[in-house]
Amino acid sequence: MSMLLALALLVPLASSIIQPGAKLEKLRDGFAFTEGPATDREGNVYFTDQPNDRIWKWTTDGKFTAWMHPCGRSNGMFFDPHGNLIACADENNQLWSIAPDQKVTVLVKDFEGKLLNGPNDAWVRPDGGIYFTDPLYEREYWKRSPESQQTGHHLYFLSADRKTLKTVDSEFNKPNGLIGASNGKTLYVADIGANITYRYQIEANGSLVDKHLFCHLGSDGMTLDSEGDVYLTGHGITVFNPAGEQIEHIDVPETWTGNITFAGKDRHLLFVTASHCVYGLRMRVKGAH
C-alpha cells in the first residue's frame, strides 16, 4: 500500500451538512412571495409575504400566524440584541425597528437628503450596528421621481447609537443578500447583479477592509452555519465552505428561493422562504446565530 493511499484511509470523509435521511419538507403554501426570515431567541421565525404587506410568524411547534399587517412592505429582516425586528421597509424606502409590541421606529428615512433606493436586506452585528443593502428594484406602489433617489447601489452602516449613517461600499452592480459572522468580525455581501459574493473584515467603527472575492455566485438571501459555511439562495440553495469552495446544493421546487435562516429550539432546522411556499430541512449542523 502506498503512503498516499494509507494517509487517505486515515482521513475520514467529510460528513454532509444535511441530517442523514432528511428531506426538504413543505411547511406551508399559499403566499404571494415570501422573503426576509429572521429567527428570534426562542427559535421562532418571522418572515414576510411582501406583495401582501404581511409579516408572518412560525413557531417552533409548527404553527403559523399573520403577525403584522400592514408592515411597510418589509423585505429583509434581522433581530437586534434587544429583541427588536430590524426590517427593510420597502414601501417608503426606510429602515425600521419593530418592537415586540409592534411599535415601529423609523431608523433611516433618507441619506444626504435623498430617498434610499429601497433597503433590501439587513444584518445586525453583536453591538447593534446595522449593515444593509440598498439596490434599486422599481416598485409599482412608489410615487416618486428618479431625481429623489440615490444615484448608486450602496452598502450602508448605521451605528449602534443610531447617530451615524454612512456608505461603506459603493462598488456594486446590485447588492442584495448579506450576512455576518456571529463574532462580528466578518461580513459577506452578495452582488446579485454581477453574480458574485464578497467577504470583508469589519472594523470597530463600521468600516470594512480586506474586501475580496469569496465566490462566483450572487445571492438573494444568506445565512451561516456553526461550521462557518455560507448559504446562498436563488436557484435553490448553494453552500460554500469558509474557503469559498462549493460543498452542497439543495434543490427547492420553486421558481425562486428568496432567503433562509436556521430555526427551531435547537437551530438545526433550515427554514426556507421560496416564492409561494416555505420549507424546512433538518440539518446536521446548526445556525451560527
Q: What gap, in angstroms, lies between the N and C termini? A: 45 Å
> Quick one: overall form?
globular
Q: Please identify the structural class as seen in this structure.
A: mainly beta
Low-confidence stretches: 1-14
Estimate what percentage of residues fall within beta strands. Answer: 35-45%
- Range of helix content: under 10%
Taking all residues together, what is the mean pLDDT? 93
Number of strands: 24
Main sheet: strand order: 1-24-23-22
Biggest sheet features: 4 strands, antiparallel
Order of helices and strands: HEEEEEEEEEEEEEEEEEEEEEEEE
Radius of gyration, in angstroms, nearest whole number: 19 Å
Number of helices: 1
Please, could you describe this protein's structure?
With 289 residues, this protein is an all-beta fold. 3% of the residues lie in helices and 44% in strands. It contains 1 helix and 24 strands. Strands 1-24-23-22 form a 4-stranded antiparallel beta sheet, with no helix packed on it. A hairpin with a 5-residue loop joins strand 20 and strand 21 (246-250). The chain is globular, with a radius of gyration of 19 Å.
How do the strands and helices of this protein lay out in sequence?
Elements: H1 3-10, E1 25-28, E2 34-39, E3 45-49, E4 54-58, E5 64-68, E6 74-79, E7 85-89, E8 94-98, E9 104-108, E10 121-124, E11 130-134, E12 154-158, E13 165-169, E14 175-180, E15 186-191, E16 196-202, E17 208-215, E18 222-224, E19 230-234, E20 236-240, E21 246-250, E22 259-263, E23 269-274, E24 277-282
